[in-house]
Structures are given as C-alpha cells and as structure tokens.
Amino acid sequence: xxxxxxxxxxxxxxxxxxxxxxxxxxxxxxxxxxxxxxxxxxxxxxxxxxxxxxxxxxxxxxxxxxxxxx
Length: 70
Fold this sequence. Notes:
Blueprint: E1 19-22, H1 36-39, E2 40-45, E3 48-52
C-alpha cells in the first residue's frame, strides 16, 4: 500500500478510517444503497462521526478505539 500499511487497512487505534454503518449486509442485498435514508445508520470520516441515526453515536464526536455494537 505504498507506505500506508501502518495507518490504513485496519480498524484499530492509530489508524485512519472512513466507515459507513448499514442495517443490512450490502453483499447480500446491494439495493441498500438505493435508499440510504432507510439503510445508512451512521457515517464516520477520519475517525469523526459525520452523520448518525443512533442516539448513542453523537454527530461531530470522536470515537475511541472500540465501538461496541449489539
């Protein structure tokens, strides 16, 4: 990865991440992206929450190393 191995490619402390949280598996149903307002639960960019529909995942907050999902 051209020298980025120590900062991208994993979800762990010290790594950069852009993450989309979905309520369905897009590998099983790609149409989840047709209706993002229904299926996207949250979006993180550079480790900060940009959008969230979860009360426990506040927008504009920085997430610690671990995010617990039930």
